[in-house]
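Handout, page 2. Input:
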Amino acid sequence: MRNGMKIVTLKRAAAAALLTLSGAGCIIAPVAPVPPPGVVVPPGVVYVAPAYVAPGPGYYWRYHSGYGWGWHHPEAGWHRGWR
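Output:
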């Protein structure tokens, strides 16, 4: 009989702890992506990580004031027709 009471008490304590932690309004803000070394982020611009790998050698992830973030090659220009 005593073991049954201990189990009930432990279950109640676990339920109380779970309710306390889940309902306490613990909100965690999402972490903003951090640009890798060498990527320049202009003031007031939010960094957006690439969604796909570089299209070829020599392309760098850069910011364009009209188009946003994209792959840029010093000789070939912007990937997917950005000029």
